[in-house]
Design goal:
Elements: H1 2-31, H2 38-56
Length: about 55
Amino acid sequence: MGSFCNNHRSVAKFYSYVLLYSYEIIKKFIKSPEAIPVHCFAHFFLALWLLQDSSVL
């Protein structure tokens, strides 16, 4: 049960880093919209979601 709680803590930490990182990306994206194609942005988040999902299982 303890490892389950530790896993959730690491997932929460992971999400806080993702939010911080994506915030930085969004700030750059707003400054220069042509720099990052939207489909690449979507793939990035899909990859992170799949990575997180597989690590929990």
